[in-house]
Structures are given as C-alpha cells and as structure tokens.
Amino acid sequence: MKKSILFLIMAISVATLHAQGLVDGLRYSQENTTGTARFNALSGAFGALGGDLSAIAINPAGGAVFLRNEASISAGVMGKDNEALYFNTFTKSLDSDVSLNQVGGVFVFDNTNENSPWKKFTLGVNYNNTQNFDDELFIAGNGNTSIANFFLEQAQGTPLNLLQLQGTETIADLYTFLGETQGAAAQNAFLGYQGFIFDPLDPQNSNNTQYTSNVAPGTFNQDYVLVSEGYSGKYTLNLATQYTDAFYFGINLNSHIIDYRQSTFLFERNNNQGSTVNEIGFENNLSVLGSGFSAQIGAIAKATENLRLGLTYDTPTWFTISEETTQYLETQRTNNGQTNTVVVDPRVLNIYEDYNLKTPGKLAASAAYIFGKSGLISFDYSYKDFSEITFKPTSDPVFASENTNIDTVLKGASTYRFGGEYRFNDVSFRAGYRFEESPYNNKQIMDDLNGFSLGLGYNFGNYYMDLSYARTEQERQQQLYSTGLTDSALVNTIDDSFVFTFGLKL
Predict the structure, then answer these.
(1) What is the 3-class SS of 236-295, one letter each residue?
(2) Which of 41, 63, 128, 404 might form a disulfide with 124, Cβ 3.0–4.6 angstroms?
(3) DSSP string spanning 410-423?
(4) 3-state percent helix, strand, coil for the chain, nearest multiple of 5
(5) How would you classify the pairing of strands 307-314 and 277-302?
C-alpha cells in the first residue's frame, strides 16, 4: 500500500533518479571572457602580461607585475541574441541585463633588502564573474513528434496502481510518494496519466505496465520557451612574488559559486484525427546552488627585455551542488463530445540529494611582446579536456552511466586568444580575437566559438577608466527533451557585452 504524506502548503521529495546530465556538467565547466574592460578588450589574452586584476585569474603570477597598490571595479551590460530554426520556422529572441563583472584589489610589498633576489611580494583579492546565465530562447514550429511520447516513454514499465490515486490521496501526496520511492521518471508518468495523455492497455489490471497514447500521429504545432538567469563567480586569493628582474611566480586559491535558475515551457496543439488530447502545456522549473574550490599556479618569465612568456596550471574544480525542481501540466481533452481542461499541479518541490561535480583542469601557455611604452601584442593558448567532467559519487549507477556518456560525447578542446594594445600619450586603443574549439566530438551538436573585441582606456595618473566591447557567435543544436520529444532546433547565439572599469592606483 502506498504511503501518503500530507503537507499544508508544499510537499518535499528526494528523488532516487537524478536531474543532472552532460549539459549541466558542461554548463558549469565553461568560463566566459569576463572581468575588467581592458581584459575583455584583449579577449582575455593576458597570461604573459599580468598587471590587471582579471589577468590574475588567468595566471596568478600576474599579481607580481603590479608596481603599486591598485583597486578596480567593473560593470557590464550583456546582450544575448538567439536565432532558432525549427522545422523551417525561424524565431528570434533577445535578452539583456547589467552585471557586476569584477571587483578587487592588490597590495604590493617591496622587499626592503636590496641585496635579496626576491624583489617584492603581492597580495590580491578579487571577484570575477565567470558566467552570465541570463538567457531567453523561443522555439516554434510544426513538428511530427508529440510531447505525449515523452510521457509515454516514462510510463512504460510502471505498474498502473502506482499512477492511480487511492482513497483520499491527493495529487501532491502521490507525486511526493513517487519522487521518494520511484524517481523522476515515475513522477513524469504520473503527470501524463493524470492529464489523460495516455491510457493503460489493460485498464482492469492494476499491475498493467504497458500504455497507449491518446494523441494520434500527425502534425504538432509547438511553442517552446526556455528562460534562465543567474551566474557563476570566482573569488580569488592571490599570492605572488618577483624573483630578480626576470621571473614572477604566483598561486591562486579560488572559491566558486553557482546560482542558476531555469524554466522551460512547451505548448503543443494538434488537430489530428483520433486524438482525444489536442493541447498540452508542460512546465519544468530548476533551481541550482553550488559551491566549489580550485587552485592555480603560474609563472611569467622575461625571456628578453621585450618578450614575456607565461605558463599556468588550473586544478580541477570540485563542486558540491544542490538542485530543486517543480513541474506543472495542463491538457485539453475531448471526452464524449465535451472539451475539458485538465490541470495537474502537484505544488511539490523536489529536493534532490546534493551531489559532487568535478570539472576539468586546464593548462595554458602564453607569450607577449612589449613595445616599450607604446604598446604590446599578446597570445594565449589553453587546453581543457571536457571528457574528464565527472559526477560523483561514481558508485551511483545513474552517475556512472552519465560519466560514460560524457567520456564518449565530449573531448579535449583548445582555446586561442589574441590581443593588442597601442598607447598614444594617455590614451590606449585595444583589440582582440578569440577562438574556442567545440567540446563535442560531433561539431554538429555545438560548433566552434568565434569572437572579437575592441576597447579604449584613459590614464589620469592615479586613476583610470576603460571601456570595451566584445562579441561572440556560436551555433548549436538545442534538443527539446532528452527522451520522447528529442527533436532539435538549430540555434545561433550572438553575445554582446559592454564593460566599464574604474580603477585606482594607490
């Protein structure tokens, strides 16, 4: 007999199946080029340069390049343009917001012993916004696969008695019970059954495990909306030193945070002959909070008076992540000539067990040529193996399966960054280019990323102001659901950002 639990407002369930997957692991493993305006203007090609608070996040040795105490704060205006093609229907959606990109400072302690080869030590504290998750994606078109298939696939193999209300049992009671004992798939099956999307093949048999759809094959008009918001950020404690006039060394201790919220809604209509369900509205909401730790070591060497070389190793980042989900289903059903709207709203918050995620480490090499006080050119190369993304505990069969999938689908990817700066009196003109390889073995899933950047800066002596503009573009396949309705839209995303930095030299 099923256990019923009554909650006054909201029920809470701990699902035995997990909401996590490859897309989630990849989302938290990637970092965007954010930070100070100067950093953005050079497309992040700062590994061999240092002397910028966001550059510390690339190579911790850069902290020792500072000559004076310095503090800066950077804010950005971010814009995202999504163009989607779904079954020959083109849609476009825009999103923009303001964010805090960077804030921090560095303190320089010169060695008073003039005979020591250790010239100075620096202490830096900085925050960098590593990812802006604010996004809005709208997909529309006439497909040939129904969302009903999603619910039907989730239901097959589930005993009928688990999907039926018993006695005084409420929608919330049974939904909660299924989450606690059977997992997310059973909850989805329950929604579909209560919404009359499918019926059992043998309705008189409580142990029936096979079902048939009430949505007939044909054409389906579908509108899909994905809205996300939030960010990931990195707090850095930087320790760096200069050895002689030629070498700089540094270490970063990083604390990471994740705050991510996503809502998806699919509305489907059909006029197919034989369908008793002609409209389906399906909503899913996800909330994610995470914290993590990583470290970096780096070095910069003056090969010549003008040439600088840099090398950095980033450890993996170890996250602990918490997730919560809610769901809502609404259908329009025709029965005995009457059309009725059926609402299945459990008002239940699914709280998943915390899980651990290890994102891959990174190795980076860089070079910069300094033209005295007139300018510079810089190049950064980095490599990250995304197939090393790992969900833990690995003893969990769901996580083990997903880790195997990640190892098969994802690969190592290189990133190339170029930047240049020209100074005329107190004015600096900047530009950069960025190329990131796709982390997927199949580039049709996600293509390479290309971007460029421009910027201006003015030095007032004890303070400075910088402004930058950056633009990136990337194509990807956006799959609507992982099962049932697996059709994809071709999405081209253009990211634009304006960043302003105000800095003080103390």
Answers:
(1) EEEEEEEECCCEEEEEEEEEEEEEEEEEEEEEEECCCCCCCEEEEEEEEEEEEEEEEEEE
(2) 63
(3) B-EEEEEEEEEEEE
(4) 15, 55, 30
(5) antiparallel
d(CA 239, CA 123): 5
CATH number, residue 381: 2.40.160.60
The angle subtended at Cα 385 by Cα 388 and Cα 416, nearest 5°, is 160
pLDDT digits (tens, 9 = 90+) for 161-175: 999 999 899 999 999
CA–CA separation, 224 and 123 (whole Å): 49
pLDDT mean over 249-267: 97
Residue range(s) defining the domain that contains residue 127: 11-505
pLDDT digit string (tens) for 241-254?
Answer: 999 999 999 999 99
Residues 274 and 219: their CA atoms lie apart, in Å, by: 13
Question: What are the structure tokens assigned to 62, written together?
Answer: 């850069």
Distance CA 380, CA 368 (A): 9
* Residue 430 included in any domain: yes
Three-state helix/strand/coil letters over 196-220: CCEEECCCCCCCCCCEEECCCCCCE
Q: Is residue 1 part of a domain?
A: no
**CA dihedral (301, 306, 307, 310) positive or negative:** positive
Residue 300 vs residues 59, 126, 245: alpha-carbon distances, Å: 8, 20, 11
Number of domains in the chain: 1
Direct distance between the N- and C-terminal alpha carbons of the chain, in angstroms, rounded to an integer: 72
Please check whether residue 191 lies inside any domain of the structure: yes
Beta strands per DSSP E along 449-487: 449-459, 463-479
Q: Is residue 255 part of a domain?
A: yes
- The rounded distance, in Å, linking the Cα atoms of 287 and 329 is 19
CA distance 459 to 367: 25
Instruction: Note the pTM of the prediction, 2 decimals.
Output: 0.90
Q: What pLDDT is attached to residue 19? A: 57
Beta carbons of 274 and 222 less than 8 angstroms apart: no
